Amino acid sequence: MKIILDPGNRVLEVSPGESLREVLFAAGVEFPCGGEGICRGCRVQVLEGTAPVTADDAREFSPQEISAGWRLGCRLEPSPDLRILVR
Q1: Confidence band (pLDDT; 50, 70, 90) for 33?
Q2: What are the tens digits of pLDDT across the range 53-73?
Q3: Quick one: three-class SS letters along the chain?
Q4: Are 66 and 54 in contact (CB under 8 A)?
Q5: Which of 39, 42, 50, 69 could make an S-S bridge to 46, C-beta 3.0–4.6 Å?
Q6: Cis bond leading into 7, ω under 30°?
Q7: Signed CA dihedral, 22, 24, 30, 33: sign only
Q8: Is the whole model's pTM more than 0.90, yes or no?
């Protein structure tokens, strides 16, 4: 499946069963807390597609941020047709 990273419209391939965390890390997304889901350093915004809200997302982001598509990149589950903004 393909994930599109903005800015730059960079297309990443994610194989079935592959961790999006590993793909994002290889693409240069940093995980300052080591991927523990506690620092918001890997935050991304879902621009297109769907991304379930994890318990870590709910703890780290306000309801308004969740509604705006903010998720922790280290916890994001890959889904088809996903476009995310990496800050």
Answers
A1: confident
A2: 999 999 999 999 999 999 998
A3: CEEEEECCCEEEECCCCCCHHHHHHHCCCCCCCCCCCCCCCCEEEEEECCCCCCHHHHHHCCHHHHHCCEEECCCCCCCCCEEEEEC
A4: no
A5: 69
A6: yes
A7: negative
A8: no
